[in-house]
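sry for the spam today, last one i promise. struct tokens for design, 158 residues
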């Protein structure tokens, strides 16, 4: 499945991220992307996160493996997500994550796209995190790209 996520909509649905966004927007976005990267590692879904506006520092960084991050510059995230749906060859393989049913959700459903509210998706994120917390079994293999990304984030590799 291809998940298309309205980034700020999801951040505002998570109280701790919404609070962090008030004074530390880069940290809020980065925190969200780390959680989504974990979701990707365990579920193997492609994830595109769409943020309104111009990229900040995080927009200049390479996103975690399995994630595509889009900053829309001069258009709303809603308008960009609608374009992604319209341009998709396989809309039935898409999942739109937004609580904005009026602008995005209704259109997506008409196109045969599954729509999850931000709250429903956060429940899925929580379930994946709980299921994999403290797991004693052998962890899944991490790709070289994932290792390089995280080492670069922590200043260990260029």
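last one done:
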């Amino acid at each position: 499945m291809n998940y298309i996520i309205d980034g700020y909509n999801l951040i505002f649905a998570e109280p701790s991220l919404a609070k962090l966004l008030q004074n530390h927007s880069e940290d809020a976005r980065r925190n969200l992307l780390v959680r989504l990267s974990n979701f990707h590692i365990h579920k193997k879904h492609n994830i595109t996160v769409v943020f309104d506006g111009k990229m900040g520092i995080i927009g200049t960084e390479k996103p975690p493996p399995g994630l595509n991050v889009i900053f829309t510059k001069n258009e709303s995230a809603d308008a960009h997500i609608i374009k992604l749906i319209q341009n998709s060859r396989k809309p039935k393989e898409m999942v739109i994550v937004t609580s904005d049913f009026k602008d995005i959700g209704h259109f997506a459903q008409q196109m045969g796209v599954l729509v999850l509210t931000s709250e429903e998706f956060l429940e899925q994120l929580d379930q994946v995190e709980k299921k994999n917390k403290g797991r004693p079994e052998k962890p899944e293999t991490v790709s070289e790209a994932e290792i390089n990304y995280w080492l670069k984030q922590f200043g260990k590799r260029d």
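The CA atoms of residues 17 and 31 lie 8 Å apart. ok im logging off now
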